[in-house]
Each structure stands twice: as structure tokens, then as C-alpha cells.
Design brief:
Length: 163
């Protein structure tokens, strides 16, 4: 495999990465990383990305604690929505969406908007394991980041809660 930057030959190895898609407490195992010893260029490739996104979305939808700004952003982009798209769907202003996603000084989404976002996210995929009674138990405490460890397995990813 040749480096796109300098044409040198790249070496390949598996690494553990400590974040994914802006989610800071998500540990990714077995990530394929290509590295160019000549210029330092790095290429990361994730296998079965669709399955990976499904797994993460489901974890976020199930999580009891509130969603962090980065998690809200992850779900919005997973849904393929811009800030104004999400604002229109949820009946708020675009500025409100920006403030929900503001890492430094977030505006709390509140449980009603959060539960709606979680429902929208699970509705977008063939997920049946989300009974509506579940909504009673989510977004019930202050936002804390999802802590999980993902490992590639066959054509999918396995998820373990981490500390
Ligand atoms: Zn290079």
C-alpha cells in the first residue's frame, strides 16, 4: 500500500483508539491503522462501519444518563440531519440545537427533547429492541458520556460497558 502523500510504502497494524466520532469515552479495539514511516501520514479504517454506527446508536438510545453535547451531535449526524433540519423536526430554533451541542457551555436538552431524539435515532434503523417503556428510564440523570469498549467480531462489533 502506497502513501497518498509521499508515495512511500505504508505499514499496517491494529491499534486501540480511545475515541470515535467525537465520542470521547468510546474505546475501539482492533482498528486497522496504516502508517507511513517516511512522512508520518496515517490512515485509519474501520470495518463494518454501518454495524458500528448501529451499535453505538443503540447504546446511546439505551443509556440512562442524559446525552452529552458530543453524543447529541453524533446522533444528529447519524440521522443525516443538519442543525436546522433537527431544529425543524423538533420544533426549536437552530440556535437551540447549537447550544445543545456546545461542548463548553451546553444547554440541557431536557428529557422530552432527548427522548424524542433517541426515538428518532432508533426509528432510522431496524432495531426492535427498544420498547417504549424504556423511555421512562432514559435521560433521567445528568449527562455523562457513554463508556463502552467495542471489538470487531466477524461482520459486526461487540460492545462491552467499560469503566
Ligand atoms: Zn508518506
Amino acid at each position: 500500500m502506497k502513501c497518498m502523500q509521499c508515495g512511500g510504502s505504508m505499514t499496517s497494524r491494529q491499534e486501540t483508539r480511545r475515541s470515535y466520532g467525537g465520542l470521547e469515552r468510546v474505546i475501539m479495539e482492533g482498528v486497522q491503522v496504516r502508517h507511513c514511516p517516511d512522512c508520518g501520514e496515517e490512515e485509519i479504517s474501520y470495518s463494518n462501519v454501518e454495524k458500528l454506527h448501529t451499535a453505538l446508536t443503540l447504546q446511546l438510545a439505551w443509556k440512562e444518563a442524559g446525552l452529552t453535547p458530543r453524543e447529541i451531535r453524533f446522533l444528529r449526524t447519524y440521522l443525516g440531519l443538519s442543525g436546522s433540519d433537527l431544529a425543524r423536526r423538533m420544533g426549536v430554533t437552530k440556535e437551540t440545537v447549537s447550544r445543545w451541542e456546545c461542548v463548553d457551555k451546553p444547554l440541557s436538552m431536557g428529557p422530552m427533547a432527548e427522548r424524542l431524539l433517541r426515538l428518532m435515532a432508533v426509528r432510522e434503523q431496524p432495531v426492535t429492541e427498544y420498547p417504549l417503556e424504556r423511555l421512562e428510564h432514559v435521560a433521567t440523570t445528568e449527562a455523562t458520556p457513554l463508556r463502552v469498549r467495542l471489538k470487531p467480531r466477524k461482520q459486526d462489533w461487540t460492545v462491552e460497558l467499560s469503566t
